[in-house]
Amino acid sequence: MPIDTRGFDDGQASGPESGVSQSPPGLIGEIIDARYRVESLLGEGGMGLVYRVTHTHLNKPLAIKVLRRENTHDEEVLARFRREAESASAIGNQHIVDINDFGVLRDGSTYFVMECLEGMDLIEAMDLAKRMPEGRALHIATQICKALGAAHDAGIVHRDLKPENVFLTSREGISDFVKVLDFGIAKVANGPTRLTRKGEVLGTPHYMSPEQCEGEDVDHRTDIYALGVLLYEMLTGHVPHDADTMMGILTKHLYEDPIPPKIRVPQVSGELEQVILRCLEKRPERRYQTMRELEADLARVQSGKRPVGPEAVTLTPTRPPEPPRPRVSPIYLGGLAAALIALAGTLAIDALEDRSKRQEPTGLIATTDLPSAPEPAEPAVAEAPESKVASTVEERGDKAEPSRRRSARRKRAAPKKSTPEGSSTILDPWK
Length: 431
What we know:
By secondary structure, the protein is α+β, with helices and mostly antiparallel strands. The protein is 38% helix and 13% strand.
C-alpha cells in the first residue's frame, strides 16, 4: 500500500518522484531528539514538509511534519501550525490523525510527530472509482461524522474539509477506515478569536460554505456543508458547484442551487438525495444542526428508512436571495424625469395641432347650418286674358332673375361635396 504524501499538509504536496529536494541540509539520516531517525521525504505543502521517520527505541514508523524555516518567524503561520497539533491531539478520536509529539529542531524549525498512515486519500479513491456505490459513500461519510462530531464537541471547527484531508486506510480488518487530517486552519472556541485579517477567505473553494465564501465568522455548520459536498462528489463524480475561476465558484455557492444528485445519477436514492440537499442549504439554520443529526439520518438511509432531518426545517431547498442591485443616482433619475415630461409636452402639442387641422372652420359651419333666406313671394295674379298673363309673366321673369342669382351665390359660398346628379337636396359638406 502506498504511503500518504499529501494528507498531512494544507497545500498540494509532492513526493520524491516529482523531484522534491527542499529538505533542510543533513536532515535525512539525522536522528531528531535522540529517537526519530529521518528516513525519507514524503511530501511538502505550503506550510511545511512531511518526512517518514522511525522511532529508534520502538522501531515504529511515524511521520514528522516540519514547518518551513522561512515560516518560523511568521507569527500567524506558526500559530496555525501549533493549532493543528493542539487541535488534533485535543480531540482524541480514532478517526482523527493521532499527534504524538511536538518539538523544535536545532535551526529553530518547529515540528510535530504523527502516526504514519498507509492507504490513499479520498480524492485518489474517487479517481479510481469514478462514482462510488451508495453503501461505500455512506460508510465513509458516517465515519467523517464521528470524527468531526468529536471535534465540534471539543469546540473545534475544521473549516477545510476536502478529499485530500480524508485518508482511507485499513484498521482491524475494516477497509476504508477514515482518518481526518490537517486542522491547520481550524477554529478553536477557546483560542484566539482570529488568526487572519478580517474578511479573509480561508478554505478550498469547491468545499466552502456560503458564509465562508463571504469571509464571515463560521461555526460547526460549515463542516456540515463541506460534508454534503463530499457526499455529492462521491456519488456523482462531480462537485455541486464548479467554474473556471475561484470567484465564479464562490458566487455559485452563494446564489445558485446545485443540480440534484438524481438528475446526474438516477440510481441515487431519493432519501440520500434529501440528506445531501439538506447539508447544502445556503442558510446555516436550514442545514442539519449537529453531526449527530446527520449521522442518524445516514444510518436511517442505510437501513432503508426515510430520513428525519431537523424537525423545525422543511426538506425543500429554498432559493438564495437575489444579489443586491446597484443603486441609481438621484441626479440620473431627475434628468430622466425631466426628459419624460418634455417628451409628454411635445406629444400633447402635436396632438392639439393635429386636432385643430381636422376641426371644421366656425364661419363655414355657421353659413352651412343656417337656413337660406326665403325667396319673396310672388304677388297674386288676377285672372286675365291669356295674352295679358303671358306678358305679365315675361316681365316678372326679367325682374326676378337677379334675386334668384343672389340666392344661388349664397348657397355656393360654403364649399360642399358634390351632390349626386338628380338630387334635389343640399347635403352637409362635412358629412
